[in-house]
Predict the structure of BMC domain-containing protein.
Amino acid sequence: MVDERAVGMLEVYGLVCAFMAADSGCKAANVTLEPFDKNKPANADSLPVPLLVTIKFRGTVDDVTAAVEAGRATAEALTGVVTSHVIPRPTEHTLKMLGISGFDVN
């Protein structure tokens, strides 16, 4: 069975901002979350917050788009947004990447 749910990604500055943006996205639309991912880029000291966190939403294209937009608005009011993107029908190889997380998850 093929998973037809869309993927929405929102990369923000900092973990608190990520939680707030994810909460806004989940309240705005019928979506689920994949594990967050993190990245500390080489230029971390020059960033507003030295940690980038990627939020990953799953659901219909409309719901994922609404979640990303709501999360983006929240993040822009806090520490800021690096980038966002919605993938309507991700390939199986893209889906394998969703489970990757730089956080230690038990």
Q: What stands out?
A: The helical segments are 15-28, 61-77, 92-98. The chain has three helices and four strands. The mean pLDDT is 91. Residues 9 and 56 are 5 Å apart (CA to CA).
